[in-house]
Structure formats: C-alpha cells, structure tokens
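P.,

For your records, the input lines for the assembly:
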Amino acid sequence: MKRVTTLLLAATAALTLPALAQDIGYSTSQPLTLPHDTFFGMAAGVATDSKGHVFVYTRNGDPIITLAGSRAFAHGGSSLYEFGPDGKYIRQIGKQVYGFLAAQQVRVDKSDNIWVVDRYSSMVMKFDPQGRVAMLLGRKPESVDVPSSPDTGRGTPPGSGQQSDLFQSPTDVAWDADGNIFVADGIGNARIAKFTRDGVFVKSWGARGTGQSEFKSAHGVAVDANGNVYVGDRGNNRIQVFDNNGTYKSSITTGGDPEAICISPGAHQYLFSSNSNPVNDLDRGGEIYKLELNGTVVGKFGQAGKGPKDFGSVNAIDCRNPSALYVAEAGNWRVTKVDLH
Amino acid sequence: MKRYLAAAATVALLFSTNSALPQVSATAAGSAPDLAYEAVPNFFQAPPGDYMGELQGVATNSKGHVFAYFRGPQTRLWEFGPDGKFIKEIGKGFYGFQFAHSVRVDRHDNIWTVDEGTNVVTKFDPTGTKVLMVVGHRPSQAEGPYATPKGPNPPDEKYTLCRPTDVAWDQQDNIFISDGYCNNRVVKYDRNGRFLAQNGSEKVGKGENEYNLPHGLQVDHQGNVYVADRGNARYVVLDNNLKWKTAYTQYGSAWSDCISEGPHQYLFMSNSNPNGNGPGTWARTGQIYKAELDGTVVGKFGHAGKLAPGWQVVHMMDCRNPNQLIVGEIESWRMQKFVLKGSK
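Structure tokens returned:
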C-alpha cells in the first residue's frame, strides 16, 4: 500500500510537473513603425540599448548573386534598423556593408555598441553607437556554394570543434562583465568561441553531439553577472551552463528546446527561453519560459500561431526590462513587444 | 503540311459535335454562344518611363481599384484607380515578392499576394502599407536556386507551400490556397492561418482527389471551392471541407477561374492558349468561358492573338463585376479591360 501510494504520488508529481509552469499574463503590441515601402522580412534579431532604442536585424531583401565573374558572389539581403523608444523609425545602419547577407541576431552591449551576427557571411560585426564599424570577427567566405546545407556549413567538417576564429553559421553573441566576447558558433560548428574584449581569440569548446559540452546546435548564448555562460542547445532540449572558461557546470531542462535565450540585467537576473515552433509547424511549441538562473520555472506565456497573442518561431528575445520584452518572430515577419503582468 | 493536317485533325476532334467522347462537351462549350464584348483600348497606363512585365495577377477591390502583380526585373505590385490611372506601388522590395503568381482582394479589401518564388502568401491591409499575415515560409538562402526540387516532390507539410498559385476565402474568412507546382493539393487554413484540411498531396494524379498543377482557385458564397486543375484540363469542385463533388472537363486548358460577386454568381474560366504558341493552338484555345456555378455554359468570348484585344496566355481574370472583366496576360505583358455586352 505504501508502495502504491508512493507510486501514485510519483505519478501525480510527474503529471502535475508541467502545470508548475504557471501561465504568466501578458499583452502584446507592435509599436515599431517602418518608413513607407519598408517592411520586415524574416525578423531575426531584436535588441534594445540603454536609452530604450530598439534595433532590428531582418532578412528583408533579395540577396544578389553576381554572375559572370570568377565565382558566384553573394551580397545584400538583410537590413539593420534603429527605432526610438516610442517605436518611431530613426535610421538604417550598415546599408551596403560587406557582411550583411542573412540576418541571424543583433545584441547591444553595456556600452551601447551594436553587435550583428550574420549567418551566411559567418561574421560578427561590432558597430559603435554612431553606427560605424568598430570590430569584426570571422570572415565572409569568398564564394558561397548554392545550395549548401544549412546544417553542415560550408566546407569544413560539421561540429568539428576546431580551435579557430572563423565561424560557420554563427547564431549569437554575449559578453561578461570584463567585456570578454562569447560567440555561439552555432549551427555549422556547434561550439562556443571566447575572445577577449579586444578580439583576441582565447579558446573554443563544444562539438556536435548529445553529451556534456556537446551541442546539437549552439543556438543562443547569454552570460550572467558572475560570468557563467548559458548556451541554448537547440535540438537537445536543454540550456547548458559553463563557467567563464568553458568548464561544464549543469544543464537546465525546464526551458523547452531553446531557439532563443536571454538573461535580464539587474540585481535579480532572470533567464528567458523560447521553445520556438519550427517555421513549418504551428501546432506545437511556441511558448516562452521565464526561469530563475538555476532553472526553476517562474512561469510561461504564449503559444505558436499567427494571431496577435501568438508567437511565430521566435528567434530572439530582448529582456533588458524583464517585464517588457521584445521578441523577433522569424515565422511571422514581425517584432512584438510583450508586456508581462 | 503533314503537321498542319495533324493539328487540323486535332482541332476537328476537339470541336466535333460527334460525342464519341462521353461528356467531353468541349463540344458543348465549343459551340457555346459567342458573347458580344468590347475592349477598352489602352485603359491601364504605366507611369512614364516604367513598364509592366508578365501580368500574373489582376484583382479589384470594392472601390474599383485595380491591382496588378507582375514579374518585371523584380516582382512588383501596382495599384490603379477605377479610371485606369496609376496610383502607387505596394511592397517595393518586400521579402515575400520574388516571382509573382496571383493577387486577390478579400471581402474586407485586404490585398493578398501569392508568390511562387518565395513560397509565401501575404496579406496586406487595404492600403498596402502593413503586412497583416504571411502564410508559408521563404526557403533559406542556402537551399538553392531551383524552382522545383530535383527528383520526387518532397512530402507535403501543413505549413510549407511549394510554389503556391492562388488564394481565396469563404464567407467565414477561412483561407484556401492552391498549392501548386511542387505540391498538388488544395489547403484550407482558418482566418488566423492555422491548418484545417487539405485535398490532394505532393503527388501528381488525375483521379478524384488528385491534381496535376492546381493553378488557381475561387470560392463561391456557399463556400464551395472551384480549382483550376491545369495539368488535367478540368475544374474541380470541392465542398467547404474540401470533399470532392465534381469536375467540369469541357472548358479547355483550365488555367484560371474567377467567380463574380453579387446575388447571381457566375464562373469564368480561361481556356488560355499555351506558352509557346504551337501550330494551331490559337484555333482551339484562347477564349474565356462564362458559366453558371453548376457548370452550365452561358457563352464564350475573346481569342488568342499578339495584338490587342487578343490575348497572349491569359493568366488571371478579375470578374467582380461579371459584365466588366480585367484580364492579365503572360506573354504580352498586358492587362486589358473588357465590357461584356452579351449578358445582362
């Protein structure tokens, strides 16, 4: 009898576990206004600076492949826009820049520099607050093989784990308090690369796999105030936590299969994780989890869909203000502000 | 000469009143009464120095504005006033535009484009300044330049369109999409874009519930769906849940259809002359048929030709007003307006 009770209790606990993720009340809006004849395409990245300005990196044009040369050379196709705190359009940054090809992510560091991650130029580009190029990581390939599988990158072994400061389909960038740079590299390489604040390559860790310190894809990276590195291991349904030098610490499995993660600033930091639906499926996932840094669930909100309170394949979360988020929806081609109640 | 004779024989067969072919009333439709009509010459004018291209899509809204979705150097969407004067371009450089196929306007005057390059159906607000919804998703840059995947079509997916061709809605605003060149199905989504049902699959077929290039579709006020099954030269009628009802086989090449508004709805069907203009094709293709929704023919009008008012591969018709058709052509880069005299 005791055993049955225990079993029952266990079963009950197992059944009620998902319900522990309380629904968080929320409302949504789309405050960003674009100039006439400008539209978001696939909204890849969104980030705010300390003044509340909003930056969006989006695939919203046709990349051009130049014919009749020694190689098929691709350029263009993505745009970086800046909006004021009221959502009003301010300007376009980086028009005609060499490394803009397929938008993947934008982040703003504590000095309001704007960092852009481009998936197919495989570059991480740092712009200063005035929009000038300040530092470049990686190098755009001299030619682009089309078609190339997005999972294997271009030319080098998948998940090679090589020590190199060149990327293959990178996905995200983050910094610790000292300004060290962590690049999630990403889809092609499945590893994390660490650089000093001056861009000196320090090391990388991780390779393709399912074990500790291995990633299906390193799809997002965030660093907490103590310098711990959180990696969204999309495909393995977990967020792996490392110390500042890449030593494995733990895995968080309460945030779904993380397509996008974000750690809020401030005295009490939260970890947000989006269990994004794939762009070809609206019938599962889509919710975003709010977690403590140790993985304890605070709550969740949203679901996959195209309606005003739905999320379509969230690819980025900005959580500078943990109760007023911006999310970039790759599937719905829109940027949504989410106010948590 | 021999070839000419063969072509003539084909024509004779198609238009023969000898109904050895059961129910292939290409005969019946072929002998349909001619409807008197008048072309309005040079009604639509491009802005000075600019050009339209292949006119894949034409549509009007409730105020008589005309939308043209066409393949120029880029795919573009233009709006004209009821007087044919150019008003503005919509969605210039938009990520969902790459290879035009259809534009339609829903009962709320939202403008929907169907693009078979990006595999995306886009809903714009009536002013064309806001994107309200996208259905389908654009392939990643790395997936390559091929219009149609090599080998067998990939398995159909609920939310992946494969070179979609057309969009329509019922009175509940459910969304119907003909999909397309590398799927062979009709898909029904709810008003928020959530999958409800499909008929057909990625596979080509000619039986019931099968398609060979569903190239256009329309929905009547009762919610029935009329699919131009081009590769099978028939118009398929489905009920609102996409259950097979019947097929009309007597109306030629089945490129495109249009259902008029108003209490008495008509079904217009284009027996478009094929691209390439093989010998004799103008003799047996080119006209537009007007029919009752049940398939009974009312009449036919128009003809193929390089010069206006002839048509060079009609790709789409607008028939909001059944006595005033706007016709978009592929090969003559032209959009023409016609007034039908032969009907009341």
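Two observations worth noting. The two ends of chain A are 44 Å apart (CA to CA). The longest strand of chain A covers residues 314-321.

Regards
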